[in-house]
Amino acid sequence: MLLRPGKPAAKSVPMSRTRFTPRIDPFLVWLTLAVVVASLLPARGSAGDLFWLLSKAAIVLLFFLHGAKLSREAILQGLGNWQLHLATLGTTFGLFPALGLATAALAIGWTDPLLVSGLLFLTLLPSTVQSSIALVSVARGNVAAAVCSASLSNLLGILITPLLVGLLMTTGKQTEGFDWKAVETITVQLLLPFIAGHLLRPWVGSFVERNKKLLLPVDRGAILLVVYSAFSAAVVGGIWQRIDAPDLALLIALSAAILAFVMLADMALARAMAMPREDRIVLLFCGSQKSLVTGVPMAGALFAPAQVGMVILPLMIFHQMQLFVCAWIAARLAAQPETAPA
Q1: In a domain, 101, yes or no
Q2: Residue 88's closest CA among 315, 337, 275, 331?
Q3: Is residue 136 within 8 Å of residue 149, measured between CB atoms?
Q4: Displacement of CA 298 from its chain's centroid (Å)
Q5: CATH number of the structural domain spanning residue 272
Q6: In whole angstroms, how large is the CA radius of gyration of the chain?
Q7: Lowest mean pLDDT: which of 83-92, 194-203, 283-292, 317-326?
Q8: How far apart are alpha carbons 103 and 121 in whole angstroms?
């Protein structure tokens, strides 16, 4: 554009940095509402048994849909970056469980043993899929590798998590030794529906992709049903007589410590491996997330009904914390130039 003589050029306005506005995950609001309803109007007796059976059926449908949604092309596209995937899996199923054992050893005697079991249980879970990929995308990381890492974590987690649970903790369905019954339960309720959905993907995959918005209530509704059923049994068993404000404060503090340690360790490992910036972002987010969508159904399959509510409470707290912290970090990374270190 030509400037008129004597008129000074307009000053360039610097681009504003991306700002992060703290927001609560809407799904957590629904989860909290399910806990409140279960606390005020718990399903008892035959109604409780009916809701528990319905939750089992919902879990089967949930993992069938997860299998149908899994894209083999997306996994194959990112499989070549094997060092990144091994680092992510090592964090998810190695570092996290080690921290879980250390935290459980420190917390025992300070709070209810079932809450301690819940803290350990959340560290044994696979990574998230949707939120991990979304965070990597916002931070301008390697999205293809994030899809592969998150999908592999969930796929392997269906097998690894129950194995770790059987080896590292008591589930309430066992007394000592390895719990092969837990593996059988996971296989029947989670793995077989997942495999069936994936094998049927050539026929149902296009329908699932076209109707994601319609199927989302099924996905979320299954989790809400499990949470309501679990907390109903927990309320009948006296959960709110066993938990007080200091217990919740301790859960929040320990969850924050675990998340901070893992994220710092991921950043240090990425630098030690001389990863490019976009891969560092993948390790940071895929390696630090824990899946509520996978964890709640697994808890329902692995723990006795009266224990599930207490066990998943630490996971619900950690879930919101990881979204809040990681969303803030992703926004900060998005505001940096691509040449800046992650």
Answers
A1: yes
A2: 275
A3: no
A4: 12
A5: 1.20.1530.20
A6: 22
A7: 194-203
A8: 11
